[in-house]
Amino acid sequence: MKKIVVLLFAVLFSLDTFAQFNQYPKQDEGHLTGGLGLMWIDGKPHYRFSFRPEISFANFGVGLDLNLDFDSDGKLRKENFNETSDYLSLIRYARYGVKNDPVYVKVGALDYHTLGHGSIMYLYNNSPSFDTRKIGMVLDIDFGQFGFESIYSQFAEAGILGLRGYVRPLQFTELGMIPVIGGVEVGATVVSDLHENAGVVRGFYNPITKKFETTQDEGSMTIIGFDIGFPLVRTDILDLTLYADYAKILNFGSGVATGIKAELSGLGLVSLFAKLERRFNNKQYIPSYFNSFYEIERFKADSTSGGAFSSKAAQLTNLTETANGFYGELGVDVLGLFNIIGSYQRLDKYPTSGILHLGTEIAPEEAPFVARAGYDKINIKDEVDLFKLDDRSYLFFELGYKPYPFMLVSLVYHWTFTPVRDADDNILEYEPQKRIEPRISFIYPFSF
How many whole angstroms from its chain centre is CA 301? Predict the structure, then answer.
């Protein structure tokens, strides 16, 4: 009941700090944020020092993220700096432009990244754990008549490499002058996970060697896809698009998705975004394969329960029949002061196929309070399971008050993950981790 209350409170009153609503500083401005906090990690107290400056100038922006956690004996927590990526991740991001600009480049943490309509990669997060933060890169360029979106998930080791190229063919003809018809877009996507565990289907943990031994490995996991979008309405108030996607997981199955998305703006107070999609999934196929939990689901080898093993690739082999389903998404923005977004998937024949994403923020610029939250849940069985925090859940919640414009006193709650490693320091799996942090932050805006 306690976990249900926490989640309900987060959903009702809460931004998605996985950065889905994250706003960069305004042009030629910056934020200098830092603070001290007492934090409980899995019930053990730690003292945290944080320093998070951000600056924006012209189309460029940089954000740093230094977090030092000390235990009750004054020792720095091992997981803070035990990988090369931990040092690289001191740079939270460096960017040029923002998403949907003609040119957008971002290096750093990649929060909730989507390619195209999302049939292959949707809301992918390269750093679901504080203890294994990754540095990746996104590069998008729109030349008008054609363009591309691209992603590389992590530089420290082999990861996900994705590219979607698209063309607006009517732009090369006289029909391209017609506002609506000229926006027809055709795209092709290829995404491949080059990680050494991406295609592991069978194996076991050897308690003697304390290592995982593979018995079946499909190698890198590659998905190809094709998509087309038909604009139906393009006005200052309403943008309505019909689309269709096809995706094929090499060596496994394929699927088709058809849907409609709408953006309603210019109403003065409220902006709306909605998306409804019907998915036709053949056996051995998972739509939006690279999702927010992919880094957690890719590979799991339990060293404490007889060597139990699971992987995202192994899930495909268990899908022995077609599994059609629905997907829906709704986003609301009220005067830029209140944001909320939610999405949900359910497949017809699989009762544990529910996937939920929620994020919301209340942070008026002049108000003395801040409320933010985000929640992800996969493999949902029923309504009761929806509110259970476990190894299929990710929750962030922050509620804060500003006694002064430059100070924020807040309580931060995180239900996240921490890695479990083998004798060679390789990650075997991720297990849930609870963080509770009373925090005092000092926020100093400046311009130049």
Answer: 23
